[in-house]
Design brief:
Length: about 290
């Protein structure tokens, strides 16, 4: 299949806020490397339990002030009252941020059950409703092709997604997945449920297979046996892992594009090299 046969694609990138000066330098090298690709937006995550809230705010504001990118700030329900979350949202709007990724968020302690904050927004649907009362934000929410780990069932998970859309969300971004058939089956159910907003596939180039395997276990994402075999024997060979990672991600995106998908969200892990190479293979080049 040639690039001409799939047509133009649109991408967005996800970053996480830096914890150290060295990580901050690495993040901004990544931002500058990917900025010329003209993504539709870039999102900045929160840590578990809202632990990176201030760093997220600082990163988003710097993106507004120093780049031409359109930042989307993650907001979660954890570790904050409604008034505190609302104040953050108003601050973002005043700073020129018009796009929020509204999430429930993770429990503050790894492995602990999620507990809503007293006086806070209980779940993402409540956060979406609250944000729409503050300003006319563009709101993205999360979708789980392989079911959220805390969901009672696939049906309950899909119903939760529909309630978030009905509350005012304008887009859903999926958890990463590696088997396109998983996404296609999920979209059959999404459309049958009457959900018509874009459900953008989240793609993660796998440079560190052991790390991603841990992420997958925590989020309920499955790893195809064939994919695991591609990384066998490469634990100490980072350069070859990079080549394999880009090849596999490009193959996955091509398969989705062939089915008509045009928008993709790339989880960068604050690394520019893999995503830049992937975009190059997909025909996305820096503007002259």
């Amino acid at each position: 299949m040639t690039l001409a046969s799939i047509g133009p694609l649109s991408v967005s990138f996800e970053f996480f806020p830096p914890k150290t000066p060295e990580m901050e330098e690495a993040l901004w090298r990544t931002v500058r490397r990917l900025e010329p690709l003209n993504p539709s937006f870039v999102s900045v995550t929160y840590g578990a339990g809202g632990s990176t809230r201030e760093r997220t705010h600082a990163t988003v504001k710097r993106l507004v002030e120093e780049t031409k990118l359109k930042p989307a700030a993650h907001l979660t329900c954890v570790a904050a009252t409604r008034e505190e979350v609302d104040a953050v949202a108003r601050d973002y709007w005043a700073a020129g941020v018009r796009h929020i990724v509204a999430l429930r968020g993770d429990a503050q302690a790894p492995g602990a059950p999620y507990q809503p904050h007293p006086g806070g927004y209980a779940f993402a649907v409540d956060l979406v409703q609250g944000l729409k009362k503050i300003a006319d934000f563009e709101i993205s929410v999360a979708a789980y092709p392989e079911v959220h780990p805390d969901a009672a069932s696939a049906e309950a998970d899909l119903d939760n997604l529909k309630r978030k859309i009905d509350a005012g969300a304008t887009r859903a971004i999926t958890q990463f997945f590696f088997d396109n058939e998983v996404y296609f089956r999920f979209m059959d159910r999404v459309l049958a449920a009457g959900i018509s907003v874009p459900v953008v596939p989240g793609i993660i180039p796998v440079s560190n297979f052991k790390q991603i395997a841990k992420f997958a276990t925590a989020t309920g994402a499955s790893i195809p046996p064939a994919m695991a075999r591609h990384f066998e024997g490469l634990d100490d060979d980072a350069e070859t892992r990079k080549l394999v990672a880009v090849a596999l991600a490009a193959e996955q995106v091509h398969g989705l594009a062939k089915a008509g998908i045009r928008d993709f969200h790339f989880y960068t892990l604050n690394r520019a090299d893999l995503c830049f190479a992937l975009c190059h293979l997909l025909g996305l080049r820096p503007a002259a």
